[in-house]
Each structure stands twice: as structure tokens, then as C-alpha cells.
């Protein structure tokens, strides 16, 4: 019996060795993708609601990491009581002309005086109005789950989901700012799109 175990261990070692020899050399961590640089420095405002802060902050953390990888290092973070308060802050920040983009993050759930669908729709529409009025792009990571129960399972799920949303909103923000920078350069130079 011991001989069979030893023979099996030897065979396993030989298989592992042959697999290692035939496997291509790949680094443990693939190289980070190269993102384009901006012609001018960009400054972004990140406005987040404090309702369910422990969930929403996951979006901010992943956003900050991803946006820095995309060569935007000037980010100012603002916190408001709830998602309903985000549009007014976004509008005032846009009017300062300090920011080339504004990102909003919040979690709107049932409870309180307003229905969550109403709050979410109102916030999204108001954010769209802000960007159209001020020509400062506004991005939303304000989420409204159909079902949210204050259980650890739901909190864990939405924390992970907000990490993904933070990365996605950083990508959208950086790509839009690059596109607008090119477009504005073309307009200034009189080059047709």
C-alpha cells in the first residue's frame, strides 16, 4: 500500500513538472493596461450619500483606485445626507468650473417618506439636467435595487456590486473626458467632426 502511494506521488510530481515545463512563461500579475494621458489636468468631484455608507464607500474606494490608474489624480470627495441631495451639490460644484466631471454615488432603498423608485428617477433626471445645463459631465452610480433587505447577505452582495460600479464609473468618466478633450480641441481648431 505504501509503495502504491509513493508511486502515485512520483507520478503526480512528474505530471506537475511536465506541465510546468510546457506552460508558457506568464507573469503572476499581468501588466496593467496602458491608459491614454490627458492633454490638460482633470479634476473630478465625487459626491456620495451617507445612507448605507459602508456599502457606498466601496464604490468610492474602487473609483479612486481606477481613476488614478487612468491618470486622474485630482479628486475631491463630498458627502451628502442622502441621494436626494446629490443633484443640488452636483449643480453647485459644476457651476464653480473647478471640475471637469462629477460622479454621484448612492444606494436608494425602500423606507422613509418617498418611494425608492421616485427618488432614484428624480435623482437621475436631475443629474442629467445638471450636465446639460452646465456642460460638465455627470456620472451616476446611484443604484436602486428591486429587493434590498437589511441582512448581511444583501450587504455583502451590494458591497461587491459597488466595487464593480466604482470601476465602471471611473472608466466611463475617464473615457468621456478623453473624448470631450479631443472634441473640444477639434472645435477650437475649426476641424469638422
Automatic annotation (TrEMBL):
EC number per UniProt: 2.5.1.78
Polar residues bias (residue ranges): 1-21
GO molecular function: 6,7-dimethyl-8-ribityllumazine synthase activity
Annotated region (Disordered), positions in chain: 1-38
GO biological process, alphabetically ordered: riboflavin biosynthetic process
Catalytically driven reaction(s): (2S)-2-hydroxy-3-oxobutyl phosphate + 5-amino-6-(D-ribitylamino)uracil = 6,7-dimethyl-8-(1-D-ribityl)lumazine + phosphate + 2 H2O + H(+)
Name of the protein described by the UniProt record: 6,7-dimethyl-8-ribityllumazine synthase
Entry GO CC: cytosol; riboflavin synthase complex
Recorded superkingdom: Bacteria
Keywords on record: Riboflavin biosynthesis, Transferase
Record pathway: Cofactor biosynthesis; riboflavin biosynthesis; riboflavin from 2-hydroxy-3-oxobutyl phosphate and 5-amino-6-(D-ribitylamino)uracil: step 1/2
Task performed by this protein: Catalyzes the formation of 6,7-dimethyl-8-ribityllumazine by condensation of 5-amino-6-(D-ribitylamino)uracil with 3,4-dihydroxy-2-butanone 4-phosphate. This is the penultimate step in the biosynthesis of riboflavin.
Family note: Belongs to the DMRL synthase family.
Residues that bind (2S)-2-hydroxy-3-oxobutyl phosphate: 154
Residues binding 5-amino-6-(D-ribitylamino)uracil: 51, 83-85, 107-109, 140
Transmembrane segments: none
Residues at the active site: 115 (proton donor)
